[in-house]
Structure prediction request, 352 residues.
Amino acid sequence: MIDRGELIRKLALNVVRFSGLGAVASRFTLGCGAILMLHRVTDDPPMPFGFNRHLAITPQFLDAVLCETRALGFRFVTMCEAIDRLASGATGERFITITADDGYRDNLTAALPTLEKHGAPITIYVAPNLIEGKVDLWWDVLEDIVTRRDMIYLDTPRGRLSIESATPGDKFRANTVIHNYLTTEVPEHAQRKVIRELAASAGVDPARPGRETLMTWDELRRCAAHPLVTIGAHTMNHFNLARLTDEQVAQEMTDSARVLNVELGVNARHFAFPYGYASAVGPREVEIARQAGFATAVTTRHGVLYPEHASHPHALPRISINGRYQQVSHVRTMVRGLTTAMSNRGKALVTV
Ligand SMILES: [Zn+2]
Prediction:
């Protein structure tokens, strides 16, 4: 979840669109493939203030993206085939592999029928404790709290903060302040207690988002049995791994693969780092994912794939299909690699 760097990409997309750079630059920037990143695929209207709107696209837009990328000559492959193609030099046709993080129910009910139409495989990354409700979808709970309250009281080690949350502008700022507090000041293991206290004082049910939007184990078993679906691991607790010790990181990874094996009978060969941005995954986490035995690991860094990624299978960038910009032209620009270097300070080969 949470796609940082949206603004820079939007700027880059507009530069490409208005400068006519697209046709010229693509010959040089074109990678050999791309990993698309989804979260929710749904026709449900977004929450009124839409703080997490980037995490949901419509099934119609997914269909349009698949039509467009196929027309551009991309072949849809599994994550296993993607890494095999990289390892063998990626000389054939360009490819796309689709991923979805967190295990939302609409991946089964809305995304899969669309993917079936195109024969497009998907890897769904699952964090067992999100599925079991032992961890909350805290970013959605926070949105519920901010939406409901006009004033929020946050008890911090620095004392009690009174955060105005009456107008739409206030709500946006309140969401940002509390989001930053939870992700930078509160230890990962204490996050749930803080968000649950806020939810209780706001009269918000902290279990609602997970219960209503994530799959159950039974639904995941149906997914896992589908020929187009690969199940990948996404840690046990969806913690920011960069904020944990080496041992905790390794345990988060191996425990999640073990539980997925017990519950779903799958051997999870692929892994997605929770959050996936620079302050959540770096060289240490990449090395631990390699040692844990995963064949691949994906971040949320923005970029297409190059043959050189064969040497970096545990630091693969992705192209976020962002709910805020559901335009096929944006996806076309991104999968052709035109925004990769612009979003990464001139670097085309994006790792961590
Ligand atoms: Zn996630």
Notes: The longest helix spans residues 246-264. The CA atoms of residues 86 and 310 lie 5 Å apart. The two ends are 17 Å apart (CA to CA). The chain has two domains: 6-134+214-343, 138-206.
